[in-house]
Amino acid sequence: MTIVTRSIVHIDEAKCTGCGLCVMPCAEGAIEIVDGKAKVVKEELCDGASFCLAVCPEGALTVEQREAPAFDENAAADKMAERLAAGAVMTQTCFSCGANEMDRPLLPVRTKGESAWVCVKCLPALIHG
Ligand code: SF4
Hints:
Blueprint: E1 3-11, E2 31-34, E3 37-40, E4 61-69, H1 73-85, E5 106-111, E6 114-119, H2 123-128
Antiparallel strand pairs: 1-4, 2-3, 5-6
This protein binds iron/sulfur cluster (SF4).
The site of iron/sulfur cluster has 14 residues, from loops.
């Protein structure tokens, strides 16, 4: 296993309520809820892209730079194939129009104190009012 200095998600367990909102945004399957807290189950699955950060209502997620196993794209693909086969992938929906991620790309946003997903079609209205 190659160790490199790179971006990787850090979870503040004291802030984490175990709500699970960060599990599905992770396209690599790196985060799971273990004993009521979010955990990066295998560091090589986390690419540090930080899509999970915006959805955490507690501010428990940050990205740090440190030594960690290099991101393993093949392991991440295997993990997600495993989840898909088990039917363990929930699609997210746009809070504004209800479109799901199979219809069009979604982005995580914070709005009115809440974490939500917005589709690219509704995003301009959110930005410009
Ligand atoms: S979204 Fe935040 S509070 Fe919820 S499980 Fe993930 S880290 Fe914990």
